[in-house]
């Protein structure tokens, strides 16, 4: 099983509070998904809702899932206590549900910053699954799988070569060498899909040369790669509903 997941947030990981990439890539992305019959899960940073509502409505209309990616993407979610986590995630859930008339059952914490309160907080708000970790031996911010207590299903982002999170940029660079997993979870951000020209343009808006080089390095169009590796994609909510993860 494969699931394409999109961390739907402001430009450059929420570092710049504009929705340029979201506006540029949402409709081409929806066309690609439709072309290959894929259904994806969009983890939406709720601070974007006011400026992206027409795009979000199109995503819902096309039958994709909307999950929560928190409200304020800048917060370090692994430093929040249970009450603060509940406040932040609840405001995200309610904003998304009210704006779109949907029910939000899935969560991915910003920057994979899960802590020992995350599962309890999600459970108290009726979430049905979490996708806030990565199956990797890499140290640092991905190293949070110790905060899983089995209170609700956790569906980690997959890896390639047992190291690199299966983001579309890495798949484009290294090939689709996925490590075995029950569910192959691929992830991307809207800005991963910008053209080279648009990425270069963004450089003038304060991105370091090293980060830029990573985003410019590509051997194929990210959307074409996604169509190839994600063609059987189902939403995480539907995979959980089938009891395929535990
Ligand atoms: Zn994010």
What is this structure, in a nutshell?
This protein is an alpha/beta fold. The protein is built from 9 helices and 8 strands.
Give your account of this protein's structure.
It contains nine helices and eight strands. The strands form three sheets. The chain has a four-stranded parallel sheet. It is of the alpha/beta class and about 250 residues long. Helix 1 runs parallel beside helix 8. The chain has one domain (about 1-235): Glycoside hydrolase/deacetylase (TIM Barrel), CATH 3.20.20. It starts with a strand and ends in a 5-residue tail after the last helix. The structure holds zinc ion.
Given this structure, which CATH class is correct? Answer: Alpha Beta
Our Rg estimate from Cα atoms comes to: 17 Å
Q: Specify the structural class.
A: alpha/beta
Please describe the biggest sheet, giving its number of strands, its sense, and whether it closes into a barrel: 4 strands, parallel
Task: Identify the bound ligands.
Answer: zinc ion
Outline the low-pLDDT stretches.
none
Shape: globular
Distance between the termini: 15 Å
Topology summary:
Elements (H helix, E strand, L loop, with lengths): L1 E7 L11 H16 L4 E5 L4 H13 L3 E4 L13 H19 L5 E2 L10 H7 L4 E2 L28 E2 L3 E2 L2 H7 L9 E5 L7 H8 L5 H8 L5 H8 L6 H6 L5
Parallel strand pairs: 1-2, 1-8, 2-3, 4-5
Antiparallel strand pairs: 6-7
Helix pairs in contact: 1-2, 1-8, 2-3, 3-4, 6-7
Bound molecules: zinc ion.
